[in-house]
């Protein structure tokens, strides 16, 4: 069962600004960029088309050895580099790059016959060959490190802004949830004061959980939170409210989901689909695994009253969750809303992410 981890770090950790050089995607990009550099240097140094293809082949081999040597060393030293400060990482990786270039250049000088100066840039001496390689390596490495650092800073800024927006959207749910729960308790105080007191205690536990600062929780926690909310509503609506739960057991127990992602949608279903019905109805909640994602489906019966019947404000929770999913998962998650066979249906998917 595959596991994926969020690209987050806890407080106090020093995330490296370097990409994961053990990743196949990064290795492929390095190979492509090295080949592009070989082509540019060949065009700059060759005088004839015949020499160009010969020089390109030799130069490509030479630069690819340097590039792959850098990738190998940075991959092996990744854990060590991640424990260091950004400035030390920059100096260390820069030194490793120059060292690899020097070693490969010296080996090339030893292995290349003096009468075949293809890698020596038009009959330059070995000393000039080494110096030229080191200068090119120093410039390319500096530019690459600068690019990695700026990209890391940009991503960190985007992630921080997204996290603040998610927290702001999540905060909008809590007062709405409290308001509806207090209405339930108010109705119980007239009919069953003892039950109302117990419900207040349950609500306190629920609201304490909702005030948590975590952006994500385990799926089991989110389900338990939703169940406890349903129990409170069940006290008010009685037999008019029925919940049909279907949860796929193949979903890992430590799967992480956004906090307060289900309760607002279930609340919507009860408020707009069950309360208006004289005889109540059934809210269907289905959670199944679909490849490496989880598919959530929440449905409720449409009101049987006039076609124009519609309670105001029933889009707030849906739009809130749409924005939170987009901020948290981008294109990997989507939410669909529609009507079918007399039911109002909300479905959304999120990628499976397990707690490490």
Description:
By secondary structure, the chain is α+β, with helices and mostly antiparallel strands. It is 59% helix and 13% strand. Strands 2-4-5-7-6 form a five-stranded mixed β-sheet, with helices on one face. A hairpin with a 2-residue loop joins strand 4 (281-290) and strand 5 (293-301). The radius of gyration is 30 Å and the shape is elongated. Residues 1-14 and 116-122 have low confidence and may be disordered.
Task: Break the fold down into its secondary structure elements and pairings.
Layout: H1 24-45, H2 49-76, H3 78-82, H4 86-111, H5 126-191, H6 193-210, E1 216-218, H7 219-237, E2 241-247, E3 256-258, H8 263-274, E4 281-290, E5 293-301, H9 316-329, E6 334-340, E7 343-351
Parallel strand pairs: 2-4
Antiparallel strand pairs: 1-3, 4-5, 5-7, 6-7
Index terms:
single chain, 356 residues, alpha+beta, 9 helices, 59% helix
Average pLDDT rating = 78
Helicity range:
55-70%
Structural class by sheet pairing and helices: alpha+beta
Q: What is the strand tally?
A: 7
Low-confidence stretches: 1-14, 116-122
Q: How many helices?
A: 9
Strand content: 5-15%
**Strands of the biggest beta sheet: in what spatial order?**
2-4-5-7-6
How far is it from the N-terminal to the C-terminal residue, by CA? 13 Å
Shape: elongated
- Rg from alpha-carbon coordinates: 30 Å
Main sheet makeup: 5 strands, mixed
Order of helices and strands: HHHHHHEHEEHEEHEE
């Amino acid at each position: 069962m595959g596991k994926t981890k969020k690209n987050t770090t806890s407080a106090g950790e020093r995330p490296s600004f370097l990409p994961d050089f053990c990743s196949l995607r990064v290795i492929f990009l390095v190979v492509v960029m090295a080949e592009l550099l070989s082509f540019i240097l060949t065009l700059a140094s060759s005088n004839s088309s015949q020499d160009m293809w010969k020089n390109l082949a030799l130069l490509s081999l030479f630069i690819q050895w340097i590039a792959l040597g850098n990738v190998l060393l940075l991959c092996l030293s990744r854990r060590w580099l991640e424990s260091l400060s950004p400035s030390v990482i920059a100096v260390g990786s820069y030194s490793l790059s120059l060292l690899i270039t020097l070693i490969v250049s010296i080996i090339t000088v030893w292995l290349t016959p003096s009468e075949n100066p293809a890698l020596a840039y038009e009959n330059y001496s070995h000393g000039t060959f080494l110096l030229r390689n080191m200068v090119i390596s120093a410039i390319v490495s500096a530019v690459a490190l600068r690019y990695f650092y700026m990209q890391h800073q940009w991503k960190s800024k985007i992630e921080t802004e997204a996290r603040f927006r998610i927290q702001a959207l999540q905060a909008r749910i809590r007062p709405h949830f409290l308001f509806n729960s207090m209405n339930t308790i108010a109705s119980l105080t007239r009919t069953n004061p003892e039950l109302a007191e117990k419900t207040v205690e349950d609500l306190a536990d629920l609201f304490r959980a909702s005030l948590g600062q975590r952006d994500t929780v385990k799926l089991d926690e989110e389900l338990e939170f939703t169940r406890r909310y349903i129990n409170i509503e069940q006290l008010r609506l009685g037999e008019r409210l029925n919940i049909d739960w279907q949860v796929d057991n193949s979903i890992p127990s430590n799967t992480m989901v956004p906090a307060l992602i289900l309760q607002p949608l279930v609340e919507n279903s009860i408020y707009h689909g069950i309360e208006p019905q004289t005889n109540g109805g059934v809210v269907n909640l289905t959670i199944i695994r679909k490849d490496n994602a989880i598919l959530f489906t929440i449905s409720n019966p449409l009101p049987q009253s006039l076609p124009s019947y519609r309670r105001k404000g029933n889009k707030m929770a849906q739009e809130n969750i749409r924005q939170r999913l987009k901020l948290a998962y981008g294109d990997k998650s989507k939410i669909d809303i529609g009507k079918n066979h007399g039911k109002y249906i909300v479905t959304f998917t999120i990628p499976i992410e397990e707690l490490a």
